[in-house]
TrEMBL record:
Lineage of origin: Eukaryota, Metazoa, Chordata, Craniata, Vertebrata
Gene Ontology MF: a single term: O-acyltransferase activity
Pfam families (UniProt xref): LCAT
SUPFAM superfamilies, alphabetized: alpha/beta-Hydrolases
Family matches, as InterPro entries: AB_hydrolase_fold, LACT/PDAT_acylTrfase
Residues annotated as signal peptide: 1-22
Protein name according to UniProt: Lecithin-cholesterol acyltransferase
Key words of the record: Signal
């Protein structure tokens, strides 16, 4: 591919992606924050970032028994970028990519594994580059604005501000090794700075953090965690997950069909985990409406059968109780999320369901991706734990923009500098 054509493809893909903010994939924003030379500040607490779904890079090495297309690589002697590599969006490339990134679920063992002959690793654990930009060309910015701002405050990358990327294809019930590494990283940062740290989570990363905190003793949390800052967490799941599993969503990429990308979106255990929880929705709310049936949260088994993805039901059974009940986290909590944006809560299909896009939508309040019922479940923790729970709603704040918005980042700064007070928060009774 010629250089000029390659650049054109890059531009088209990333302009398209900018219009497609979503819950389980990255968004694309050029960094508007410039690094300034600041003296390191060792007085502010260290910060550990846990990204959302698809919010960090993945790498793969392959030695496959077969290939899905003759143009796909069958073997590599090195690890290559699996997420995100722009070649995956090309007509042939997407078939190779889906076969490399998919997981294989075993109903008998209730375990998932990589595709045959594929090794996947998460680069940069403990470092920030893998969450600041999701591609090696630094076009798909994610936490770069946030980290750059922290550096301008006096934080040092990979020292006082670090990140804990993970294999976002796999739900927490199969992430024992990751959580062991996360715990050790927290303890190491505590030892280095001799003070507890803040965990900063976005989107499903916050659900990961919540699950992790449930596994720790209160004494451990009291010693090592100063607070948990959550941005746009789908505490009660997300309705959008049902649409993605049913008919797919191509992230706004004009060269990729929804049905094609659906192959990959079904090959994770995190999407079934994020189906709407009973804590957020009444039993009779219709999430998917078709001419033949209306699906509520009581109909998940039939839903998976009707979309011909019965493994999804077993995945959901495996993960449904990971944070069920939504007990308080046991640490000081800062729960921030967007409201005031139309957010689909019912997808209406015609008789081509599930192999065609929805024909209509019912909207409710939310951050354009997750509804406010789910986002606001953290309010129930106020008064249910010794530690304070701060809730702040940001009007008309999209799900992805909350990570890079200057107003939000300034509020995060006020927390780290010990200036955040009740007068700054919007507490609703």
């Amino acid at each position: 591919m010629g250089h000029a054509h390659c650049c054109t493809v890059l531009l088209i893909v990333f302009l398209a992606l900018q219009q497609a903010a979503g819950f389980w994939h990255f968004d694309v924003f050029p960094s508007s924050f410039k690094t300034q030379n600041k003296v390191p500040n060792n007085s502010t607490p260290p910060v550990l970032i846990v990204p959302g779904t698809a919010g960090n890079q993945l790498e793969a090495k392959i030695d496959k028994p077969s290939r899905v297309h003759w143009m796909c690589y069958k073997k590599t002697d090195y690890f290559f970028t699996l997420w995100i590599d722009l070649n995956m969006f090309m007509p042939i490339g997407i078939n190779c990519w889906i076969d490399n990134i998919r997981i294989v679920y075993n109903r008998t063992t209730r375990k998932s594994s990589n595709s045959a002959g594929v090794s996947v690793r998460v680069p940069g654990f403990g470092q920030t580059y893998t969450v600041e930009f999701l591609d090696n060309h630094k076009l798909s910015g994610y936490f770069n604005n946030m980290v750059t701002h922290l550096v301008n405050m006096g934080y040092v990358r990979n020292e006082a501000v670090r990140a804990a990327p993970y294999d976002f294809r796999v739900a927490p019930n199969e992430q024992e090794e990751y959580f062991a590494r996360l715990k050790k990283l927290i303890e190491d940062m505590y030892e280095q700075y001799q003070q507890p740290l803040y965990i900063l989570g976005h989107s499903m990363g916050s659900n990961y953090v919540l699950y992790f905190l449930y596994q720790q003793t209160q004494a451990w949390k009291d010693q090592y965690i100063k607070g948990f800052i959550s941005l746009g967490a789908p505490w009660g799941g997300a309705v959008k997950t049902l649409r993605v599993l049913a008919s797919g969503e191509n992230l706004g990429i004009p060269m990729v069909s929804n049905i094609k990308i659906r192959e990959q979106q079904r090959m994770t255990t995190t999407n079934p985990w994020m189906l709407p929880f009973e804590e957020a929705w009444p039993a009779d709310h219709v999430f998917i409406s078709t001419p033949s049936f209306n699906y509520t949260r009581q109909d998940y088994q039939r839903f998976f059968k009707d979309i011909d993805f019965e493994d999804g039901w077993f995945m959901w059974e495996d993960t449904r109780n990971l944070t069920a009940g939504l007990s308080p986290p046991g640490v000081e909590m800062y729960c921030f999320y967007g409201v005031g944006l139309p957010t689909p809560v019912t997808y209406i299909y015609d008789d081509q369901f599930p192999n065609a896009d929805p024909v209509d939508y019912v909207y409710a309040d939310g951050d354009d991706t997750v509804d406010s019922l789910s986002l606001g479940l953290c309010k129930r923790w106020r008064g249910k734990q010794v530690q304070p729970v701060h809730v702040k709603e940001f009007r008309s704040m999209p799900h992805m923009e909350i990570v890079l918005n200057r107003k939000v980042i300034n509020v995060v700064q006020s927390i780290l500098e010990g200036r955040y007070g009740e007068e700054d928060s919007t507490l609703m009774n």
